[in-house]
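your task:
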Amino acid sequence: MRNKAQSGATKIHVRLTEGHFQNLRRLISWPLLLAFFGMVWVQVDGLPWLLFDFEQRRLILFGSHFAWQDFHIMTALMIAGAALLFTLAMAWGRVWCGFACPQSIWTWLFLRIEHWTEGRAAQRARSEGQPLQGSRLFRRVSKHLLWLLLAAVTGLTFTGYFIPIREMLPQLISMQATPALLIWLLCMTLLTYLNAGLVREQICLHACPYSRFQGVMMDDATRKVSYDRFRGEPRRSSEHPNPAADACIDCTLCVQVCPTGIDIRNGMQAACIDCGACIDACDQVMHKTGQPTGLIRFASELQLQGEADHFWRPRLMGYLLICLVAVSAASYGFYGKKELTAEIRRDRGELFRVLSDGRLCNFYHIKVESFNPAQQQVAVVLLEPSELSLYGPQQLQLDNRGDWVAYRICGEDSAAAPRSLLVQFTTDSSVLIKRTTFISRLSSPSA
């Protein structure tokens, strides 16, 4: 069975294989899967370990709370991640895609389910076009049901990083979930089912932007999955092996095991995700034919041509330097992040108002948010000037609902210029001072 993406076939039947790189892929992907499905259940002090809480405008990350003012930390982490991705692409090609990308991980999971329910790739290819009836219909339906089940669990888990899953599940079980939540879960389930089950390799072939710009990252010293044409050509027939011919016996196993259906022997292609499946399949053939392994291997163009290459190149070191600088900036941001934020806005409806007792008042709105779960209340005090008085709640609950609370500051109308005000916000572990102004009739523009 030949399995080429370029041959015009509408469906690729991927043959599963074993080997060093497949074991390495599992060693990387299974901890990531366990982290994805398990971390949503972990709690610290009654709160999820990782939660994107849009309602209270905060991110909970490993027990630490981050405000929107801490966005620069996330920016530094994203820059570090991008620089690390560029480093990997320049050093080893698309190894991220082959070993750790969620699209690839879920594709392999769906392929494994397909293998369990409908049999091996050769069996699936032979049954194409046959009537769907009897045991074949049962296996096909079982496959799609298991795909939908895995997609639903994936969508539910993903949603649990935005809505605490311990709160969401009781709502779903008791049929009290909102229509918006149900629609979202349905969309995430269908997207996972389509991406990993029905579309799968087409994402890597046509939709993934990384496959388009990876060539800019790589150079002649990039060690990617490569076919050694100097050793493999001309190919000899697997049915009539000729010891005088070169190493490749044209068994096409490297094509059959490729999750994107390409033929690595045609050279580097944008659809190659450097998963190493073709290397494992080819090495098995080399063992059986008594030849040295490595006909397909991670190698650079310079290595294939027998020239010396240099792994540590200036551009590669530059990417690493950017990554280290971004990680350092994020670490500094973690160290100096704020646990308490406060905003003071003047009432735009009127600059001031004179009360019946002759005092003049300015009106404000105050919003206070805490990003430390131990902080429950904050005290609001006017520090200076002492001749003015603050009217409003002296204690605010730190529930992070984003509510603006009305305050007024009153005093004698005696100053000719706006006076600077200092308002102090105090919790058990934080003190924050904010500055605003007090405007009198004499200092107002209308005067």
Observations:
- Residues 1-9 have pLDDT under 50 and may be disordered.
- Residues 27 and 99 are 9 Å apart (CA to CA).
- The radius of gyration is 31 Å.
